[in-house]
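SAM-dependent methyltransferase
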Amino acid sequence: MERQLISHLAHADHPIAAPVSEESLERLLVRAKPPARARILDLGCGSAAWLVRALSLYPDATADGVDISDTGFAEAVEEAGRRGVADRLRLHHGPAADFAADEPYDLVLCVGATHAFGGFAPALDAVRGHLRPAGLALVGEGFWERPPTPELLALLDAEPGEYADLAGTAERAEGAGYATVHAHTSTLGEWDEYEWSWTGSLTRWALDHPGPDGEAALSAAREHRDMWLKGYRGVLGFVTLLLRRA
């Protein structure tokens, strides 16, 4: 099965594709306080959970979502219609790094999708290119809660410097020309809810679809669960930074 389809199935019951609860998501969007008639952009939007909630909170805002996979767009349109915001949401299928707009945005999101730009630093540069001078960004990135072992780095196919610790992550953002105005550090409970949902949703789908695709999905779920429970649980953290151009 394609990786994008596996990810889509795994997020069926947790459309926020990051270890962030719905309550934390809403608090971050409320803290952002975009101006009237705000333009909002999500780079790597998935099923647009952040944008649909933002449009519900800010009834005069408009939003664009960009993702290389459109497998979540149908659910995004359905949820946007249910909340009455579909007419203010535009979805674009294509690489986030290639997206171009005629006007800048008041709020730009890139949560759990910095890999689309090759990492945290290039993602911050790309986000800044879409922001108004006084605009804000919500950028979610991993960090090391404690130093990873060589075995974990091999398991994740990661380099030691791929992530910093929490302080270093904030310093990297500020070194890229931002000021941090707020942040949310995901709790272990948020991580557990996200990971159990990821592996459980994929496992349920696999059991309901016996055959080669079901076997592939079940294998992916078990591999991911082992990587989490036996590897990065309590080692890899996640922080969502609310940033303003300095």
